[in-house]
Design goal:
Belongs to the class-I aminoacyl-tRNA synthetase family. This protein is mainly alpha-helical. It is built from 13 helices and 5 strands. Strand 2, helix 2 and strand 3 form a beta-alpha-beta unit. The protein binds tryptophanyl-5'AMP (TYM).
C-alpha cells in the first residue's frame, strides 16, 4: 500500500490556501487510498521568531482543524512532530549528507531570510537547515508520496536528492518519495496581492482567508479582492492574476475548471459574490466540527497520544537502519550489557 506523509506548520492560523492546497485532499482521498500520516510540525515553527505560548496554542488548533477537516484517526495517523524523537534524530544524520550550497538555494530560505533581515532581525540557523528536518519527516516513514501545495515542491525535490545520495553512499535505506499536488488551487494567492502566496505567517490579514473566519468576514475579504481594471472575465494567470486566483478558488470550492467558469460570468462583481458564497459553504462544515471538537479537548489529546505512539513504531526501524548504515555504533541494550560484563 502506498505510504503518504504530509504536515502543516503551526506558525499562524490555518488558511484557505492550506485547506485547498493540501488538507482537503488528505481528508477526502489520501486517508482512504493510502497508509497515511499527517503531522503538526511544531519543530519547524521554531525556525522564525516565535512566542512559545502561541506555538503551543497554534499546534493544538492545527490538530483540531485537521480533525475538523475530516481526518479520521481510525483511517490515518495524526500526531505532533516533537512527540516523536526520530525526526530530530534523523535530521542530524541527513545534515551530514546535505550541503551548505543546496540549503542556500532553497527559495523559501532566501525569501524568509531576506524578510527577517529587512525587519532588522537575525536569521536562525534552523531556518537554513529546515528543509533537512522536512526531509527527515518524510524519509523516517518511508513515504512514497507527499501531498503538498506548489510552494513545498522544491523541498520534496531536495528530499529525493538526499534519499538517493544516502542510498548510493551507504546502501539502500530510504524510499525515494515524490510530491503530489492538487489539480487546481495548488497555489492560492493573497487576495490583496495576487502575485504572492496566501501564507499564514504573513501579516497582511485582509488578503488572507482563515479557516475560522466568520462567513461575513470571508465575504468581505473576497468582495474586496484586488483585481485589475479590465471588465471582461478571462482566465489568464500572467496578465490577470487577481481574477485567475478568484476563478481557481471558485473552481476548487464549487467544481469545474477556471477556464470554463470564466465564460459563465459577465462581471467581476458576480464572480466575487459566487466565490465568496462557495468559500463560505466549503468552510461551514469544518467550522461546525471544529466547534464540537473544541468542546472535547480530551478527544484531541487522545488522538495525538495514540498517533505519536504509532508513528514512533513506524519511524524507529528506518532511523536505526540509517544510523547503522552511516557508521554509528549500535547501542547495546541494558540487559545485554549486563551479559557482556559477565562474559568478560
Ligand atoms: P505549511 O504549513 O506552510 O503549509 C501546509 C500545506 O499547505 C500548503 N499551502 C498552500 N497550498 C496552496 N496555496 C497556498 N497559498 C498554500 N499555503 C500553504 C503547503 O504547500 C503545504 O502542503 N514545510 C511545510 C511543512 C512540512 C511538511 C513536512 C510538509 C514540514 N515537514 C513534510 C510535507 C512533508 C510547510 O511549511 O507547510
Amino acid at each position: 500500500m502506498t505510504r503518504v506523509f504530509s504536515g502543516v506548520k503551526p506558525t499562524g492560523h490555518l488558511t484557505l490556501g492550506n485547506y485547498l492546497g493540501a488538507m482537503r485532499r488528505w481528508a477526502s482521498v489520501d486517508q482512504y487510498e493510502a497508509d497515511a500520516l499527517f503531522c503538526v510540525v511544531d519543530l519547524h515553527a521554531l525556525t522564525v521568531d516565535h512566542d512559545p505560548a502561541r506555538v503551543r496554542r497554534l499546534s493544538r488548533q492545527a490538530a483540531t482543524l485537521l480533525l475538523a477537516s475530516g481526518l479520521d484517526p481510525e483511517l490515518c495517523t495524526l500526531f505532533v512532530q516533537s512527540h516523536v524523537d526520530e525526526h530530530a534524530r534523523l535530521s542530524y544524520v541527513l545534515e551530514c549528507v546535505a550541503t551548505d550550497g543546496e540549503m542556500r538555494r532553497m527559495i523559501q530560505y532566501k525569501e524568509k531570510a531576506a524578510r527577517e533581515q529587512r525587519r532588522g532581525g537575525s536569521v536562525r540557523l534552523s531556518l537554513l537547515t529546515y528543509p533537512v528536518l522536512m526531509a527527515a519527516d518524510i524519509l523516517a516513514y518511508g513515504a512514497d508520496e507527499v501531498p503538498v501545495g506548489d510552494d513545498q515542491v522544491q523541498h520534496v525535490e531536495l528530499t529525493r536528492d538526499l534519499a538517493v545520495r544516502f542510498n548510493q553512499r551507504y546502501g539502500h535505506t530510504f524510499v525515494v518519495p515524490r510530491a503530489t499536488r492538487p489539480g487546481v488551487a495548488s497555489r492560492v494567492m493573497n487576495l490583496q496581492d495576487p502575485t504572492s502566496k496566501m501564507g499564514k505567517s504573513d501579516d497582511v490579514g485582509p488578503g488572507i482567508v482563515y479557516l475560522l473566519d466568520e462567513p461575513d468576514v470571508v465575504r468581505k475579504k473576497v468582495m474586496r479582492a484586488v483585481t485589475d481594471s479590465g471588465r471582461e472575465v478571462v482566465y489568464d494567470r500572467e496578465a490577470r492574476p487577481g481574477l485567475a486566483n478568484l476563478l481557481e478558488i471558485l473552481a476548487a470550492c464549487a467544481g469545474g475548471s477556471p477556464e470554463e467558469l470564466s465564460g459563465a460570468y459577465a462581471s467581476y462583481g458576480a464572480l466575487k459574490k459566487d466565490t465568496a458564497e462557495a468559500v463560505v459553504e466549503v468552510l461551514r462544515p469544518v467550522q461546525e466540527r471544529h466547534k464540537e471538537l473544541c468542546a472535547d479537548p480530551g478527544f484531541v489529546e487522545g488522538v495525538l497520544r495514540d498517533g505519536a505512539e504509532r508513528a514512533r513504531g513506524m519511524a524507529r526501524p528506518t532511523v536505526d537502519a540509517a544510523y547503522r548504515a552511516i557508521g554509528l555504533l549500535p547501542a547495546v541494550p541494558a540487559a545485554d550489557a549486563g551479559g557482556a560484563v559477565l562474559r568478560v
